[in-house]
Amino acid sequence: MQDPPDTKFRFSDERGQAIVELAIILPVLAVILFGILDFGRILNYDNDLNQMAADGARFAAVNRIPPAVNGCTGTSMTDRIACQADTAELRDGSGAVTAEASAVVYTTGNTGDPVKVCATATYQPFTILGLGPTIHLRGSATMRLEQDASNYTPDGADPTADCP
Predict the structure, then answer these.
(1) Which of 69, 107, 124, 140 could disulfide-pair with 115, CB 3.0 to 4.6 Å?
(2) How far apart are CA 63 and CA 112, in angstroms?
(3) pTM to 2 decimal places
(4) Which residues pair with 138 in a beta bridge?
(5) What strand order describes the sheet that includes 135-144?
(6) What angle do CA 75, 81, 107 make, to 5 degrees?
(7) Which of 137, 141, 134 shows the shortest CA–CA distance to 159?
(8) What is the phi/psi pair of residue 119, to 5°?
(9) Considering only CA atoms, which of 75, 93, 83, 106 is closest in space to residue 137?
(10) Are 122 and 134 in contact (CB under 8 A)?
(11) What separation in angstroms does the CA of 144 have from each of 60, 68, 111, 127?
(12) How far is C-alpha 48 from the geometric centre of its chain's CA atoms?
């Protein structure tokens, strides 16, 4: 028994093949694209935290409180260091940043002793898809105190301690 004539043409017709292939590959391409974008943001935030820690260590080394920028209302050394973040997302803990940038200052407070500043934040990649691990970003910098620490109160006395 032979197939009806229209069945033969129906199975050999390739119309719509491209749209089916696009529907299969598009989610994979979207995940790769979002992954590249998130990776770039992670690198940017990590670099920003390192810069914040270096600026904070320099301010602490010369016994100065950083200036209030980006609408900062905090008056402590750690609040002002955290306000140095480049993006509102990093400063406020909004969007993919699940814990806002924070800073910790370790020093004994005596001239010549080291001062270590740690800046930290928490990032959640793939927030659009609701996937991905929580990534803890850290930046740190250590310098020598040029003056006794009298304008701020250190958060700890051991500058060799690991960043939280």
Answers:
(1) 107
(2) 12
(3) 0.81
(4) 120
(5) 97-107, 114-123, 135-144
(6) 95
(7) 141
(8) -115, 130
(9) 93
(10) yes
(11) 9, 24, 8, 40
(12) 8
Closest C-alpha among 31, 62, 52, 158 to residue 100: 52
pLDDT digit string (tens) for 23-82?
999 999 988 998 898 899 999 999 999 999 999 999 999 988 888 887 888 788 888 888
Any residues with CB less than 8 A from the CB of 110 and at least 6 apart, and which?
145, 148
Amino acid letter for position 73: T
Amino acid type, 3: D
Number of helices (H) and strands (E), helices first, in the chain?
Answer: 4, 3
Neighbours of 129 (CB within 10 A): 11
Q: Given phi > 0 = left and psi -120 to 50 = alpha, else beta, which region is 16?
A: left
First to last CA, the chain: 78
Rounded distance between C-alpha atoms, residue 149 and residue 62, angstroms: 8
Q: Which of 164, 153, 162, 52 is nearest to 107 (CA)?
A: 153
C-beta of residue 149 within 8 angstroms of C-beta of residue 102:
no
For 133, the token pair is 């691990």
User: How do residues 126-148 score in pLDDT, each as one tens digit?
Assistant: 877 677 788 999 999 999 999 88
- Structural contact between residues 62 and 145, judged by C-beta atoms closer than 8 angstroms: no
Residue pointed to by tokens 């009806």: 4
